Write a sequence for this structure.
């Protein structure tokens, strides 16, 4: 099973990015093989609808779950439609978040914040 | 007093702005429009239009405003995702073999329809608000109202502004802008010839003024400030204007009578000569500013 985490750096020792749509990278982590893969988030610099674009990339990378501190409404809609579960991270460490997920210590994200209506540009 | 109508440039567009609500923006707008008598008043605060509460116009026209948004024929769509990659607003996503359209994020550019190789995308109308046009003692009143649940006010504002120039006779146009300095405010002042910034003589007032002032500077709009509810005290807003060389066109003193008329939904300039004179003289100053600056401009 694969999971995704917004990451501040292309490095598993780095931290969980506080923004889903604007994160520079996503870690795509395979729980079974422990293979870590990083993808650039092309939505990071997009004018509007960053959450939707980032969510599309996550859907395309075929993960089963995403671990993130927060998530916007539109992004959540895309992820949920694709059957991806959204878990709320508690720690800022990527490794600790993965461990917590494996031990089933993470709760599903409840508060979904309303988007900025995508008219930033 | 010189004849105001003589001085009024044809279809002169004056935008009235403020950093937040309650600084007398609507007070200024409705009173200036009333003092001008044959004028157009446009309420661009499409989330909460309130100018009509003062004018109480007889509505002649009420129409629905809609925008074009894409819809997809799932039988024709083969999932190539070209449209998803194309949309620079990221209003489209392709999930589980289906194209998902985020109506609120779409900017109606029509691009996806053109780009789709399967011609799977067509347009449909989406109602975003209503436009009302009415009359109130010589003032044409235009009011736009966003539908609830619609995120974007810009289409409604655009429709309002395109309608306000459509009157045959050449009247000055007063644009009552939404509060703040967001993109809907930029849209509202886009075509304005002159911007009047309504401010209050407090620290908060100064901060709010700073925001809208940066906006009119950015748009290189001619402008000046009207400070409302002035009392005899040190005034951070005035200091800010002086430091930055911003012209203060008028300081309206704190006035219980004016405040009471206003909060009762009355237009002071229509109620008494005192206020008619106040706003007529302010109007005259605006016209003078505009013609003066126009003269300076043509000398350049
Ligand atoms: S019309 Fe333009 S903004 Fe709307 S979904 Fe299509 S490409 Fe995106
Ligand atoms: S471009 Fe046309 S065919 Fe391709 S995914 Fe979009 S709607 Fe479907």
């Amino acid at each position: 099973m694969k999971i995704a985490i917004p990451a501040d750096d292309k490095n598993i020792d780095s931290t969980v990015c506080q923004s889903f749509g604007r994160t520079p990278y996503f870690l795509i982590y395979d729980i079974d093989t422990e293979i870590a893969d990083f993808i650039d988030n092309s939505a990071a610099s997009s004018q509007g609808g960053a959450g939707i674009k980032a969510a599309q990339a996550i859907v395309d990378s075929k993960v089963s779950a995403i671990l993130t501190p927060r998530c916007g409404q539109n992004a959540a809609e895309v992820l949920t439609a694709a059957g991806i579960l959204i878990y709320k991270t508690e720690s800022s460490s990527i490794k600790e978040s993965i461990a917590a997920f494996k031990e089933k210590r993470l709760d599903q994200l409840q508060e979904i914040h309303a988007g900025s209506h995508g008219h930033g540009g | 007093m010189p004849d105001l109508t003589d001085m009024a440039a044809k279809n002169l567009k004056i935008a009235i702005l403020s950093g937040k609500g309650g600084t007398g923006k609507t007070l200024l707008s409705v009173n200036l429009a009333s003092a001008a008598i044959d004028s157009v008043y446009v309420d661009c605060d499409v989330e909460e239009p309130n100018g009509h509460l003062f004018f109480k116009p007889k509505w002649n026209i009420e129409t629905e405003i809609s925008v074009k948004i894409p819809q997809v024929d799932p039988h024709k769509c083969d999932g190539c995702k070209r449209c998803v990659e194309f949309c620079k607003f990221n209003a489209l996503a392709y999930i589980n073999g289906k194209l998902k359209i985020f109506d609120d994020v779409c900017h109606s550019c029509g691009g996806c329809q053109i780009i789709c190789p399967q011609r799977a995308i067509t347009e449909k109308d989406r109602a975003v608000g209503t436009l009302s046009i009415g009359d109130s003692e010589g003032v044409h009143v235009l009011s736009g109202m966003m539908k609830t649940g619609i995120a974007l006010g810009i289409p409604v504002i655009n429709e309002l502004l395109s309608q306000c120039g459509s009157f045959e006779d050449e009247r000055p146009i007063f644009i009552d802008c939404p509060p703040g300095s967001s993109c809907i405010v930029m849209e509202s002042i886009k075509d304005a010839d002159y911007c009047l910034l309504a401010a209050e003589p407090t620290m908060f007032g100064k901060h709010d003024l700073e925001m809208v002032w940066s906006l009119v500077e950015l748009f290189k709009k001619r402008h000046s400030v009207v400070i409302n509810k002035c009392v005899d005290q040190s005034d951070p807003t005035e200091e800010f204007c002086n430091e930055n060389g911003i012209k203060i066109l008028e300081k309206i003193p704190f006035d219980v009578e004016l405040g009471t008329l206003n909060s009762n939904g009355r237009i002071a300039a229509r109620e008494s000569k005192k206020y008619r004179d106040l706003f007529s003289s302010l109007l005259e100053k605006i016209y003078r500013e505009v013609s003066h600056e126009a003269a300076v401009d043509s000398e350049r």
Observations:
- Chain B touches chain A at residues 84, 87-96, 98, 100, 102, 104-105, 107, 151-152, 154, 183 (CB under 8 Å).
